[in-house]
Design a protein that fits this description.
Blueprint: E1 6-13, H1 19-32, E2 35-42, E3 57-62, H2 64-74, E4 81-85, H3 100-108, E5 115-126, E6 129-136, E7 139-144, E8 151-157, E9 160-167, E10 169-173, H4 181-184, E11 196-202, E12 212-215, E13 220-226, E14 232-236, E15 240-244, E16 249-261, H5 270-275
Parallel strand pairs: 1-2, 1-3, 3-4
Antiparallel strand pairs: 5-6, 5-16, 7-10, 7-14, 8-9, 8-13, 10-11, 11-12, 13-16, 14-15
Length: 285
């Protein structure tokens, strides 16, 4: 006897051109494969998320931002995400509109494996009490609220004080997020399936401050030491924010949850560096 029917949730960012037509096309294709399908559409700002419970697959239609949004809700449930890139870069959301169906069929038949991605659990403490918890696929950024305003930050690793920073902020990223804000701020590109945490100060006051690559097992505490003319804030994956005050502690650690992405293995890292970031080397060397 046939097993229970599988179901997919399509998350479509209508702010992207052709997102509606791709959503309709995706529905028709998946239903033709005997899948049940529901669609969550939003115009740029998703607002309250739908329930992700009970789905076997999430299809994100948009860019990397849409994938980050869907991934944070799918990861705790162990649901894989198949991204269809309609954005400009799509470094993480590597499937193209013309190729995602083949990727789905390979995964659905067990030929293609899922890319397991480390995530960050981010906890905020104020006055000794936990004030919130976030899950991040890309990064958490502790920064000043104002533009070009320095703040004072303390960093400890494994319970030991590492140092203090005067900077516009501090980026703490996963390997997946290393090619986002971290890379733009002069940090290293790290293979997305590694188990590591990247720490990168934003516009530090001293040239002695450099990016760090630490083991994924480290627990990092970032303490707000001084804000002066501007308050401080935490930004998670560029999408969720929380205001911070002097004395607050933001703790970063490897999350028990992992993002499970259905993406072409040949484009996971090396191919994307070459085709999307133009890292082709010196042709005359």
């Amino acid at each position: 006897m046939p097993g229970p029917r599988k179901s997919a949730l399509i998350v479509a960012n209508l702010h992207k051109d052709d997102a509606e037509s791709v959503a309709v096309e995706s529905c028709e294709f998946l239903r033709a494969q005997d899948w049940d399908v529901e669609v969550f559409r939003f115009p740029g700002n998703p607002g309250s998320p739908p329930s992700f419970e009970g789905f076997n697959l999430v299809v994100s239609i948009g860019g990397d931002g849409t994938l980050l949004y869907a991934g944070r809700f799918a990861a705790p449930l162990g649901i894989p995400v198949l991204p269809i890139n309609l954005g400009r870069l799509g470094f993480i959301a590597a499937n193209r509109r013309e190729s995602w169906k083949e990727m789905f069929l390979r995964w659905n038949s067990g030929i293609s494996c899922v890319s397991e991605r480390m995530m960050l659990a981010i906890e905020i403490f104020s006055g000794g009490d936990r004030k919130g918890r976030f899950l991040s696929l890309n990064d958490g950024v502790v920064s000043s609220q104002g533009i070009s305003k320095m703040i004072g930050l303390g960093l400890s690793a494994g319970g030991q004080c590492f140092g203090q920073y005067r900077a516009d902020g501090l980026i703490v990223s996963t390997p997946t997020g290393s090619t986002a804000y971290n890379l733009a701020a002069g940090g290293p590109a790290v293979h997305p399936e590694m188990d590591a945490i990247v720490v990168n100060p934003i516009c530090p006051f001293t040239l002695a401050s450099r990016p760090l690559v630490l083991p994924g097992s480290e627990i990092l505490d970032v303490t707000i030491l001084e804000t002066r003319r501007s308050g401080a804030m935490l930004t998670v994956d560029g999408q969720e924010t929380l205001m911070l005050g002097v004395g607050d502690i933001v703790r970063f650690m490897s999350a028990s949850e992992h993002a499970r992405l259905i993406v072409p293995p040949e484009l996971v890292f090396y191919g994307s560096l070459k085709t999307k970031l133009g890292w082709t080397g010196d042709r005359d060397a």
